[in-house]
Structures are given as C-alpha cells and as structure tokens.
Design goal:
- The complex is a heterodimer.
- Chain A is of the alpha+beta class.
- In chain A, the strands form 6 sheets. In chain A, strands 2, 3, 10, 11, 12, 13, 19 and 20 form an 8-stranded mixed beta sheet that branches. In chain A, strands 8-7-15-16-17-14-18-21 form an 8-stranded mixed beta sheet.
- By secondary structure, chain B is mainly alpha-helical.
- Chain B has a domain at 26-60.
- Chain B is 68% helix and 0% strand.
- Chain B contains 3 helices and no strands.
- The chains are: A alpha+beta, B mainly alpha.
C-alpha cells in the first residue's frame, strides 16, 4: 500500500505494474527519487543524452497547492534546452514591473525587462503543477524518440542501504514491495527528504520565526500584471508586509506576513481570510470584487542546507539538499540549476569519460550556490522582519528615504530575485585570457543569451562542450578534439559583442554542457583548449 | 553637490555589515554608535555645503 500524503493537481504518471516487481533486483545506472521539477529535469537531461534514468515518485502526479510560482529566465533557458520551455512561456504570465509600497504611498517601481536580444523574459509566473506537467510532456516526447526515461508513480522508497559500489532500495507499491539497485541514486525528494532521514544526515540552518498566510484567489480584475509589495500595508490586519502577484487562469497570489505568535487554526478560517483579502482588494478599487478562495495555507520557513550534497553514490538536489525563504524565488529555480549541473557530469561518469570525482564538483559548486541563495534570502527576510531595535530603525529609515532619494532604493529588500550562480574561483574553470572581456561572461558564469543569425546563441549550446569563436579570430579555426564542436560567428551583432567581447576584437570561449563558461582567450590555441576541457571534466 | 543616486557597490553587503556592528548592543549603545558613525562619515565628506544638504535630505 502507498498512502497518499497530499492531493494531486494532475495525474501525470499513473501506477502501472512492471515485470521488475516480480524479478530479482534490477540494477539501474541512475535512479532518481522524486518526480518534482528537479527530478524530472534531471531525468529528461540524462535521457536526452542517452543515459537511462528511472524516476520513482510516491504519488501519481503533481502535488496540488501553492508551491513555486515564479520561474526565472535561467530556468526557462534550461527548459528550452530540454525542449520544455515553449508551453511554459505560453501558459505563464510574463511580468517585468514591480512596485514597492510603504504604508499608503508608493516608494518606487522597478523594471526587470532584459536588455533585449534574449529569447526569454526575466520571469514568468506559473503554478508548479503546470511546470511539472510540461516537463512530463517533454519526457514523453523524448521517449517517443528513444530517450531511455521511465517514471514509476505510486512507488515509495521505504528503505535504502549502501552496498559497496551500488545502492539497494526497498520500494513499496500498490501491488506490494520489491527491490531495486542503482549505481547512482539522486535524492530529489523535497524539503522533508525521506532519503536524507533514512541516511541520518544533517540539515541545519536558521529558523525564521514568522508565519505567512497564502491566499490564491480567482477573480477577474483589472490590476496590472505587476508584482506589488507592501511594507506596513495600510489595509486592515494585513500584518507587516503583503504581496499581490498574478498567475495564469485569473489566479492571484496574495501573501500576508502575520508574525510569530498566531493561532493558525483561527487564521485559516475562511471568514477571517476573506476579511483580510477584502480589505486589500478594496483598498485598490474602492470596492470588493467577486472572487473565490482557490487555495489557502500558512507557512513558515527555514534557510538551511546539507553540509555536503554528495555521499558516495548518493547525491542530493533541490529542496532535499537546501531550503531558502520564498523571497527571491530561489527554491525551484536553484533546484533546476542543480539538475543541469549534475546531468552532464553523471552522463560523462557513466560513459567512463570522466572520473567519479567529477561529481564532487557538482557538490562543491551547488553548495556554493546554495550559500549564495541562503545569504540573499536571509538578508531579505531580515529586512522584512527586523530582529532588533537597531535593524528596525535602519529599515524604517531606508523606507522613509527611498520614496524621495534614489540612493536608498537599492537598500530596500523585498527579495533579490533569482539569478544563476557564477562559479568563481572553482578548480574546473579558467583561464580568463581575454583582456577587456566583459565580467558577465567571465569563467564560471552562465552564458547570457544573445541573437545569432535568425535565432539565439543558447539554441546552439545544446548540451555538449562548445567552442564559441567570435569576431576577428572566428575564421578558419578547427579543433581536433572530437568531444567539442565549434560555433563561429565572424560578425557578431551589437548585443553578442557587448556580452562576449567587450573591448576585445575577437574571442574564443569554451562552454560547458550546462552553458557555463569554462575559459576564454583572445586567440585560438588547441592545446590550451584541450587542457581547459580536461580540467572541466575533472581529468586533471 | 550631495549625491542622491545609488553610490554604494554591493548595497546588500554594506547593509548587512552595518546591522552586524549593532548586534548585541542595547538601544542606548546603538544610538551612541550611530552618532559616532555620523561624525566619522561627516568628517570624511568634509565639504560644508554637502553636509548642509545631507542634513536637509535626512529630514525629507
């Protein structure tokens, strides 16, 4: 028996009995536990590379309720490489403008519109179940073309043991238990990760003493498609801060910061929630529009991570490995970056093209990224909920000055929105041998998009190591390395030039399969290229 | 002229550091620290006209 722990929004991978359930334990190269965004993206990435991936999920589809809603450009770029982005962007709500209010007045607005010349917007809002559905659709499409991906719904891992060179798993199903083995086990099983508990691993960090009430309401309203954030909202009982944000299907996300000492059951009573929502919505329009409460919950959060994301043949990714506050949309977005960091490395290791120690670079890079995300979301939380008299005095001073003086606006912090981590100073990167090269494309950075021909640069960075040769040095170069292909752009347009050349007249970039810059030079040098690539693959 | 456009690189890091020097202080100790900080910064600015503008801006 596999008891449901939550309701599902969509059935995506209904349980089907497979012959392996009646056989001796089968060994799988990669077994992924958890069919959320991270597990699905990882399986899709592996499968498209031809490496078999089996996903086990203890439900049969996407969980219902308010989870991730805000997906960043980098996530869309990753999903695009995996063939899943188009329906996400079509269904999602694209937004660029945010407004910050304090009390009755607007302090300022900001516009995240990218500089242009990029395929994707800065952010879309899309409920997580849809995001998962589109990943599963892309998995189905990839399978139709032969990608070796399998998802088993209603398969719950109930026990695991490390056995020398592999991991043995006990799995429960509606038809009873069976056993499986895996060379590599990836735990993408969420913030409460049962696998982490089974292994008795640490997950320490900071608890924030605050409760947030979420109300997703369905209404036809003329509010603009913007992110509105209030410090000290002027409407009744709204708490210390409030947020209004649009999602697809006429759903609006409303968030109230209620403080620590509250009666959860009382605050979740529909009448009480409606009173708060009425006050907020009528403060904008003068009257209460018709709306339905679609979903409500009260959440608290912690900022924490595992000490290390790799434990021999077991790797942790997404919320199972790290958790942040929701301010900044750094949960699911960073999990997607975990998946893309891990996929190509696992693939190379399984093919015997890279040593298993390459997976230590997954752990090191993504632990660094988790620290950056935790730092950013902790700072936002400290600004929104000052913990001492001094921090409240400064916070209120910033808010008072920000309305009139632009200098104070960068100090206002209602969340620093997710951007990809740059792996500065890590072993597998460098050299940076492009004098005058832009900082935004230094070794370690995720490649920013730019127009190339009739499409975009990232379309060409499709999942292998790539050499990008630009400008004056782009003609007539060739690599004898069969593992790398070359994209030559002798006449880059202005955006590509600004992002990749800066003051240089030509450049050669080596780019990893996950679209992060390994190294760059002002000329082509086959030996330097091979050496940088060997380092990126963990061979030296 | 008083600069009122953003002028501090890494504003979040600066803000964090600013709050950290107050950690563990009583209200009176924090106020005294802030007063010393204002005087240190004012001396660094040095320009009497700019200081007058800053006093004005802080009231705003």
């Amino acid at each position: 028996m596999v008891q449901a722990r939550y309701k599902t929004a969509f059935t995506l991978y209904p349980y089907e009995k497979v012959p392996q359930q009646d056989a001796a334990p089968t060994r799988h190269p990669v077994l992924i536990v958890g069919g959320g965004p991270v597990g699905l993206a990882l399986a899709l990435d592996l499968g498209k590379r031809g490496t078999p991936a089996l996903v086990l999920d203890d439900h049969e589809g996407a969980g219902l309720g308010s989870k991730a809603i805000c997906f960043a450009k980098r996530t869309l770029d990753i999903a695009h490489r995996l063939g899943a982005a188009r329906p996400m962007v079509e269904k999602g709500v694209t937004w660029n403008v945010g407004r910050v209010f304090a009390g009755e007045g607007q302090l300022f607005s900001f516009n995240l519109a990218p500089e242009g010349g990029q395929r994707h917007p800065a952010f879309i809002n899309l409920q997580q179940p849809w995001f998962e559905k589109y990943l599963v659709d892309a998995i189905d499409a990839a399978r139709a073309e032969g990608a070796p991906i399998e998802i088993r719904g209603a398969n719950r891992v109930t026990g695991m043991a490390r056995k020398g060179d592999h991991v043995a798993l006990d799995v429960d199903t509606p038809d009873g238990p069976y056993r499986l083995e895996a060379d590599w086990l990836v735990a993408c099983d969420g913030a409460r990760s049962p696998l982490r508990d089974m292994m008795g691993l640490d997950f320490e960090g900071r608890v924030f003493e605050d409760n947030f009430l979420i109300a997703d309401v369905r209404m036809k309203a003329d509010f603009p498609t913007e992110r509105w954030f209030w410090f000290q909202p002027p409407f009744k009982d709204a708490g210390q801060s409030a947020l209004l944000h649009k999602q697809p299907d006429d759903i609006w996300r409303i968030d109230f910061q209620l403080g620590w000492d509250i009666d959860r059951d009382l605050e979740l009573q529909p009448d009480r929630i409606r009173a708060r929502v009425d006050a907020m919505l009528s403060s904008q329009t003068g009257e209460v529009p018709d709306y339905e409460l679609e979903w409500t919950s009260i959440y608290t959060f912690q900022c924490r991570r595992m000490k290390t994301f790799r434990h021999g043949p077991v790797l942790f990714a997404g919320d199972a490995a790290h958790q942040v506050s929701p301010f900044g949309a750094r949960g699911a977005n960073s999990g997607m970056q975990d998946a893309e960091n891990l996929a190509w490395k696992l693939d190379l290791v399984l093919r015997g093209d890279a040593p298993a120690t390459l997976l230590d670079s997954y752990a090191a890079e993504r632990e660094f990224a988790a620290d950056e995300n935790i730092l950013n979301s902790s700072r936002a939380t400290d600004f929104m909920t000052p913990k001492s008299h001094a921090s409240r005095v400064f916070r209120d001073a910033v808010l008072r000055l920000a309305g009139k003086h632009p200098f104070a606006r960068p100090l206002v912090n209602s969340g620093r929105l997710s951007v990809p981590c740059t792996y500065d100073e890590f072993a597998g990167f460098g050299p940076d041998a492009l004098p005058g090269g832009p900082a935004v494309t230094r070794p370690g950075a995720a490649c920013p998009d730019a127009p190339v021909g009739n499409g975009f640069l990232l379309d060409h960075l499709a999942g292998d190591f790539m050499v990008l040769a630009l400008g004056a040095v782009a003609d007539g170069i060739a690599s004898e390395n069969p593992k790398v292909s070359i994209l030559s752009v002798p006449e880059p347009d202005a955006a590509l030039r600004a992002r990749y050349l800066g003051e240089a007249s030509g450049a050669v970039y080596l780019i990893r399969p996950d679209q992060h810059v390994v190294a760059r030079w002002d000329r082509f040098d086959a030996d330097a290229l091979d050496a940088a690539m060997a380092r990126a693959m963990g061979q030296v | 002229m008083l600069k009122t456009e953003p002028n501090i690189p890494d504003p979040d890091g600066f803000y964090d550091e600013l709050l950290r020097i107050h950690e563990g202080l009583s209200r009176e100790e924090s106020e005294a620290l802030n007063a010393r900080l204002v005087l240190v910064l004012a001396n660094h600015i040095g320009d009497r006209a700019v200081l007058a503008e800053a006093l004005e801006a802080a009231w705003g």
